[in-house]
Automatic annotation (TrEMBL):
<feature type="binding site">
    <location>
        <position position="133"/>
    </location>
    <ligand>
        <name>Mn(2+)</name>
    </ligand>
</feature>
<feature type="binding site">
    <location>
        <position position="101"/>
    </location>
    <ligand>
        <name>Mn(2+)</name>
    </ligand>
</feature>
<feature type="binding site">
    <location>
        <position position="353"/>
    </location>
    <ligand>
        <name>Mn(2+)</name>
    </ligand>
</feature>
<feature type="binding site">
    <location>
        <position position="159"/>
    </location>
    <ligand>
        <name>Mn(2+)</name>
    </ligand>
</feature>
<feature type="binding site">
    <location>
        <position position="99"/>
    </location>
    <ligand>
        <name>Mn(2+)</name>
    </ligand>
</feature>
<dbReference type="InterPro" id="IPR011650">
    <property type="entry name" value="Peptidase_M20_dimer"/>
</dbReference>
<dbReference type="InterPro" id="IPR036264">
    <property type="entry name" value="Bact_exopeptidase_dim_dom"/>
</dbReference>
<dbReference type="Pfam" id="PF07687">
    <property type="entry name" value="M20_dimer"/>
</dbReference>
<feature type="domain" description="Peptidase M20 dimerisation">
    <location>
        <begin position="181"/>
        <end position="279"/>
    </location>
</feature>
<keyword id="KW-0378">Hydrolase</keyword>
<dbReference type="Pfam" id="PF01546">
    <property type="entry name" value="Peptidase_M20"/>
</dbReference>
<keyword id="KW-0479">Metal-binding</keyword>
<dbReference type="GO" id="GO:0016787">
    <property type="term" value="F:hydrolase activity"/>
</dbReference>
<keyword id="KW-0464">Manganese</keyword>
<dbReference type="InterPro" id="IPR002933">
    <property type="entry name" value="Peptidase_M20"/>
</dbReference>
<dbReference type="GO" id="GO:0046872">
    <property type="term" value="F:metal ion binding"/>
</dbReference>
<dbReference type="InterPro" id="IPR017439">
    <property type="entry name" value="Amidohydrolase"/>
</dbReference>
Amino acid sequence: MVDVTKDDVTAARDLRRRLHARPELSGHENWTASVIAAQMRSAGAEVLTGLGGTGVAAVFHGAAPGRCLMIRAELDALPIPEASEVDWASDVPGQGHLCGHDGHMAILCALGCALGRGFDMGRVVLLFQPAEEDGAGALAVLNDTRTADLAPDLVVSLHNLPGLPFGQVALAEGAMGCASRGMRVQLKGREAHASTPEHGISPRAALAQLMEELTGLAEGDFPQDRFALVTVAGVSMGGTAFGVAPGSGELRATLRTLTDARMEALMAEAEAMARGAAKADGLGIEIDYHEVFEATVNDPPAVALLRGALDAAGVPHGPEGQPWRPSEDFGRLGTLAPAAMLFLGAGDQPPLHDPRYDFPDALIEVGARIWAKAVQLGT
């Protein structure tokens, strides 16, 4: 029996507010990780630190051998200024926990307190992953040689979702979140005096062409497998001098698909289009990718466990809300074991990444209750 008490939830709420007030960006979650590690040690866990950079894994052992369940939360915040007026609002200019990762961590910490008092069998690994927001953290954790020793049988996670009724869960097998990546196209021609632009080689026409043509690669209605979306995220050309006709430029676009296979095809189309435009205007070109997210797919065994836990916890659930267009770094963790993520309704709240967003404290008890039942059924 795993019993999360009111005291566990109250302590987790206070912890969340501390974390919320001091957000740290992807790959720089040093203070956050140290606080989480201390909390988990005080709960009686074996603690691994520095996992994949700043990650923390807290391992709890049951009274008898059994399966291993890994439950994952995220450490990082966003480079977005907070505009809420709560007493625990961010003290760090330009940064905020505006996706609810502070709440996800608090839920696991409440569960950790309960696990530390003992449970029947198996192992539970509470993974606090770094760098989810930029897509680098899960891969870094997987590349850490110590991760293989954790050997989970199932991997699960949750994400709060404003707009979904409070305490209701969205869960389904199959596609859960899109693959996405940032494509950067750098074009190089030749500068000229602004009075004689014909003496240079300008990227202007190619950039204008690509803004239209790349977005035209969009296809299909979400969530069909052929779905593809290209969003221009930024365009730049030249500098601040009025006397120079620029010879270089850059376009940044986000490619998004429901499946990894469709992403490969979309990349090939986008690259061919960019190289064709550069060649036509005599421009040099370099293409690279940033913030790479693989598609997140919910595996049937992990979904079955979560459905059982939700039923045991008395939490209403259904498939509405999955899949969603955003991306989730959780998808890579499916290489460790069958994996699934659920959405936990946050009710009438500002959207994720909105400067006014603040994770609702009342969700901590609901999330911890779900995970307690998952431990009982999955270990």
